[in-house]
Amino acid sequence: MKIAVVGGGQLGRMMGLAGIPLGIDFVFCDPAANACAGAAGPVHVGPLDDPASVAAIADGADAITYEWEGVPASTLEPFVHSHFVAPSLRALATSQDRVAEKQLANELGLGTAPWIAVDDRAGLTTAIERVGTPAVLKTRSGGYDGKGQHRILSIDDGDAAWTALGPAGSLVLEGFVAFDRELSVIACRGRDGATVVWPITENHHEHGILRESRVLDDARTQARATAIVTTLLDELDYVGTLCIELFEVAGELLVNEFAPRVHNSGHWSIDGAETSQFENHVRAMLGWPLGRTDPLGAVAMLNCIGALPEPSAALAIGGAHLHDYGKSPRPGRKVGHLTLVAPDENTLQERLVAAREVIAATAR
Length: 364
Ligand code: AMP
Prior knowledge:
By secondary structure, the protein is α+β, with helices and mostly antiparallel strands. The chain folds into 3 domains: about 1-85, Rossmann fold (3-Layer(aba) Sandwich), CATH 3.40.50; about 115-175, 2-Layer Sandwich (Dna Ligase, domain 1); about 180-360, ATP-grasp fold, B domain (D-amino Acid Aminotransferase, Chain A, domain 1). The protein has 12 helices and 17 strands. It has helices at about 10-20, 50-60, 75, 90-95, 100-105, 120-130, 160-165, 220-235, 270, 275-285, 310-315, 345-360; strands spanning about 1-5, 25-30, 45, 65, 115-120, 135-140, 150, 170-175, 180-190, 195, 200-205, 210-215, 240-250, 250-260, 300-305, 320-325, 335-340. The strands form 3 sheets. Strands 9, 10, 11, 12, 13, 14, 15, 16 and 17 form a 9-stranded antiparallel β-sheet that branches. β1 (about 1-5), α1 (about 10-20) and β2 (about 25-30) form a beta-alpha-beta unit. The longest helix is centred in the middle third of the chain and has 17 residues, at about 220-235. Adenosine monophosphate binds near residues 136, 146, 176 and 177.
């Protein structure tokens, strides 16, 4: 069997590394010749907004998937009649537009921050008046890791926000959510509609970039997150792995955004769950049964940003698993992660303290 993956970053690499033991071949397309998924299969070099890049890898593929949600739907459109392409282009296109994403969530009865689409300067003033402050102005598409966002504390910040983001095109103003926790829920739906859900994680970001995810054992919140992700998966007739980022505020869960792909907050599942988000994604692509998602203990994941820790120091920590994405170090770049698995929460806490020290010693 062969899976063609659009995008050749670390998500594609880990997808490949999960599927190779199952006898699956992988082929990738990516703009960079040295794309790190090259460790898991050949990489065709080409832009991801050009169907010719997909055509170069589609031959003989049993499924076409993507590891980057910025791939324009028009790149994949030509292949939906000849190939199994998943997650669906509706899921992809919806996730690329924060307004469509929130509209869909609200139509399905899922809560979000209050929001209003903004198309011009006058519209921004109206939106600030209606949403209130504090608020966050965001680009409707293309923003990631906190980029394309501007905080608005009072109506007087309108001009500065407009100067920063107005030229970027269509925008959305969101009420600022004073969340208690940021969570994410990841699930995978098979071709037959069977769905598995991993334990939710609590996520900590710095400068908009995910630093740590910790797996939660919280049955009440889990049940509500599972209901949210199942609602969205079923509505989209989704196949593959989906992540929804959530704000928890006063016991309520609000949808921030979703990613129609494997997600950084699910990397812990490689070493810390019975079946990883990557393996279940490739199983789903081929119509194979999905594996159980039970955690293998108390689990947390720390991102290595800018540089990798010294392997001998990281691996000296009990239950530590180091993942090096094979990318050259650069400030702000995710170059690997460290997963910690422990028999109980107290031991995990001790290991986390040690792991943070090892990572801080090398972080740039
Ligand atoms: P996003 O690109 O929407 O995931 O935003 C990046 C980060 O900014 C989130 O993980 C939150 O920490 C923060 N953020 C985004 N939107 C809001 C909001 N409406 N209220 C509070 N914090 C937000």
